[in-house]
């Protein structure tokens, strides 16, 4: 009887597990078939008389990065088009006879000034083809307005505003909080201007940090105000006056009077203006197509190469430089990708697109060496700098044959620091936990987070930081063909904008990613469209299933998360500190608005 019971139970369990397996496997197979069918059936086709829509709202990333499962469940998918998508769409549309014009919906996008520089360049290229651009906003944020100034028609809601306020940033200082907690940050650094550590040891900005920030803020504002002035035929001094006198609080009619906008209109009437421009009836539908969809259309995809043809590789290095993980510029992954491209006979040369404030000094050195391996294959290496290419971001750039930067790119910050917390004031002083250490040799147990560093430990760490700094400046001197003393004179952890970096010899030319690609294409004697972007950004199966499932399409647990934006930013900072390599080649956190 007992034997029969166990046989019956085991049989039931086996049947249950087989059923679950078949259900899951069958579900995946059905989803995969459905996705394959969906991909085939939903190939984007561009209709005649179409209008490309640039939806400027939300956080605009440099390039699409597949989200982790938990990030997708918590926050959903970022619906804003990426900079890569917008640049590709705008330049492709300029030569597409099915695209008549562009409609810019300015809803408040978050992107760097250098990114806006590059998008402005592409929009001007589009206009030079003889096509038109319409812009509309309920209220223009300064960054979106900068882009809108290139439009033929700038429309504003009758109760809206245009925000021109200048350029500035705010740096939080955590020292007061750390003092209350009994936590002390022990700092080892090289570079007078290496101010990334200041928020953890000071209560306000140091004089050198303030000096350098004021310099690049003024340069960025000069670009922004000068561009607005040129595009709207308004004296630059008047733009500065508007910024200083709260122009955004004026009635909408004032923006028309001052030529900041061409007219006032409610959003629902903008479509009629576009219909009139297209020469179609008011009852006709407008063939709008988003930037993301357009880049997936046959028109654009047919013009792109596959990696099996001779081409220029455009390798994106975006985010923090880290030793491991699944986000940012992961050292081992980037090294592997670079070496693969070096060994690929179809790769004629590489444009490294850098948008990074730096990070791990060790990972930066490994990437630098891999790029030297690439150059050793007699293939040209150019660097295109985006919003940031600073500290470790400059480290991986400095050996390139030619470096291009935008006017407002933040670069340089050639310096190194180490930051080790001393939690003894919290753990022992406040919580009463004490420790006894037994060692075979002095420092055998290494650095401790629950006791301050000894003088000998601090001296050893300082020596290590200086060694890395000497290596860093030596790499820069070698790559830029400058004496080491000259490099150290402009290093010291100081951040420079692209325009100043050009004068100092840190970059070779002012120019966008497109300019960089064209320069390499000219050197190699190939067409500028002979490019392939790396690394590949294919979604995992679970992402495709969730994205295409009506059941999950609106699932955003993040909407219910009990964190506001500031708390979320602080939590991100804590996570970053926890995962940091002890030796950092990183610029300070800057948010310029």
Protein described:
- With 593 residues, the protein is of the alpha/beta class.
- It has 22 helices and 20 strands.
- Strands 8, 11, 13, 14, 15, 17, 18 and 19 form an eight-stranded mixed beta sheet that branches.
- Helix 13 (331-343) packs parallel to helix 14 and helix 17 (455-480) crosses helix 18 (484-490).
- The chain is globular and about 90 Å long.
- It starts with a helix and ends in a 7-residue tail after the last strand.
- Residues 22-41 and 549-563 have low confidence and may be disordered.
Compose a concise summary of this entry:
The protein contains 22 helices and 20 strands. The protein has 593 residues and is α/β, with parallel strands linked by helices.
């Amino acid at each position: 009887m007992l034997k029969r019971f166990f046989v019956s139970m085991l049989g039931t369990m086996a049947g249950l597990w087989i059923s679950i397996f078949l259900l899951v496997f069958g579900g995946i197979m059905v989803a995969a078939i459905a996705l394959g069918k969906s991909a085939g059936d939903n190939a984007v086709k561009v209709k005649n008389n179409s209008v490309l829509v640039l939806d400027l709202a939300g956080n605009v990333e440099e390039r699409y990065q597949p989200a982790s499962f938990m990030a997708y469940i918590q926050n959903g998918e970022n619906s804003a088009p990426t900079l890569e998508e917008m640049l590709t769409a705008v330049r492709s549309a300029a030569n597409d006879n099915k695209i008549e014009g562009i409609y810019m919906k300015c809803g408040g996008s978050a992107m760097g000034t250098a990114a806006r520089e590059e998008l402005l360049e592409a929009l001007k290229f589009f206009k030079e083809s003889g096509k038109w651009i319409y812009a509309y906003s309920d209220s223009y944020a300064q960054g979106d307005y900068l882009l809108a100034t290139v439009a033929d028609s700038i429309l504003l809601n009758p109760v809206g505003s245009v925000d021109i306020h200048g350029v500035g940033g705010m740096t939080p200082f955590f020292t007061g909080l750390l003092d209350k907690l009994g936590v002390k940050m022990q700092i080892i650094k090289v570079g007078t201007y290496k101010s990334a550590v200041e928020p953890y040891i000071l209560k306000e900005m140091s004089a050198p940090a303030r000096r350098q920030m004021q310099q690049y803020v003024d340069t960025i504002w000069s670009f922004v105000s000068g561009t607005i002035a040129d595009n709207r035929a308004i004296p630059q001094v008047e733009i500065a006056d508007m910024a200083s006198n709260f122009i955004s609080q004026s009635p909408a009619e004032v923006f028309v009077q001052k030529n900041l906008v061409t007219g006032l209109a409610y959003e629902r009437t903008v479509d009629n203006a576009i219909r009139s421009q297209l020469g179609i009836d008011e009852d006709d539908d407008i063939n709008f197509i988003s930037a993301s969809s357009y880049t997936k259309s046959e028109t654009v995809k047919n013009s792109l190469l596959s990696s099996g043809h001779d081409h220029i590789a455009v390798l994106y290095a975006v985010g923090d430089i880290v030793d491991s993980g699944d986000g940012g510029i992961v050292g081992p992954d980037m090294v592997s990708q670079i070496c693969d491209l070096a060994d690929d006979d179809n790769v004629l040369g590489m444009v490294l697109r850098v948008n990074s404030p730096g990070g791990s000094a060790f990972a930066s050195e490994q990437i630098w060496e891999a790029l030297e391996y690439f150059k050793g294959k007699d293939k040209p290496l150019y660097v295109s700098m985006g919003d940031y290419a600073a500290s470790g971001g400059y480290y991986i750039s400095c050996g390139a044959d030619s470096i291009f930067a935008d006017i407002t790119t933040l670069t340089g910050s050639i310096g190194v620091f180490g930051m080790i917390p001393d939690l003894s004031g919290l753990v022992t002083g406040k919580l009463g936990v004490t420790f006894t250490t037994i060692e075979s040799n002095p420092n055998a147990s290494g650095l401790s987070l629950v006791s301050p560093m000894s003088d000998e430990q601090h001296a050893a760490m300082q020596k290590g930081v200086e060694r890395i700094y000497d290596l860093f400046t030596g790499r820069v001197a070698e790559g830029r063909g400058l004496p080491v003393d000259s490099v150290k004179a402009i290093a010291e952890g100081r951040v420079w904008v692209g325009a100043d970096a050009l004068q100092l010899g840190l970059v070779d030319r002012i120019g966008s990613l497109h300019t960089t690609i064209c320069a390499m294409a000219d050197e190699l004697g190939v067409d500028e469209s002979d490019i392939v972007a790396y690394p590949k950004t294919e979604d995992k199966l679970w992402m495709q299933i969730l994205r295409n499932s009506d059941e999950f399409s609106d699932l955003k647990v993040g909407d219910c998360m009990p964190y506001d934006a500031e708390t979320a930013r602080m939590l991100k900072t804590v996570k970053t500190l926890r995962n940091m390599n002890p030796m950092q080649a990183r610029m300070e956190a800057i948010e310029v608005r």
